Amino acid sequence: MPRFFVAPEQIKETYIIIQDPQDIIHIKNVLRFKKGDKLCISNGQGMDYECIIETIDQNTILTKILNVYKSDEEPAVHVTLFQGLPKVDKLEWIIQKATELGVHHIVPMMTERTIIKINDPKKIKKKWERWNKISEAAAKQSGRSTIPLVSTPISYQEALQMGQRLDKAVIPYEKEIHTGLRTIFPLSAQQTIGVFIGPEGGFTAEEITNAVDHDILPITLGKRILRTETAGLAVLSILMYEIGEV
Asked: In this structure, is the dihedral angle defined by the CA atoms of residues 128, 134, 136 and 139, taken in order, positive or negative?
């Protein structure tokens, strides 16, 4: 059943109003839904609503709520991906795939070797809006009931402080050869996990030392060095497997 996201204020006691122009076009012109067709609507926070279309207008679609249930599509643990800003459009690809894999929160960060520098507030806002649109689209496509939040870029130091407040956090590092990801297992439901991924140039030795000082564990991802757009997804895949998601 197709899933669509709405803001909480669009959800009433017995009905839900769809107002997003792109969703309306998709429902009318792509799916060719009409009155009486069913769809799933989510509040983006883990609650799903089975609905039936009552009316379709040019700017709104009115749906009647048939059933309400808590979604079971979300992972048992909440993973925050701290991603060093990569070049060009790699971050958009990372956001899309990380959302499909079950990430809870994506935090772009600027590290010492970050090549891309975003300082203009207008450009930051525009990119942030696009990143969250990509997250929402990926959540729809993958059947999730929660839309992962993509934050505006922060400094590495701010990211470390955030990671220190999580239950566990790891930082893959090519010079670490002994400690693997399995060190943090087993994981229990509702634990918060941080994964720190460097940009194309990786982390400096000083940044790794700083991470250790913030209780973030350096780990190896094996004998081969993974690209920045591969490393985070590899960790997410392993985490999802270990907690029984796949």
From this structure: negative
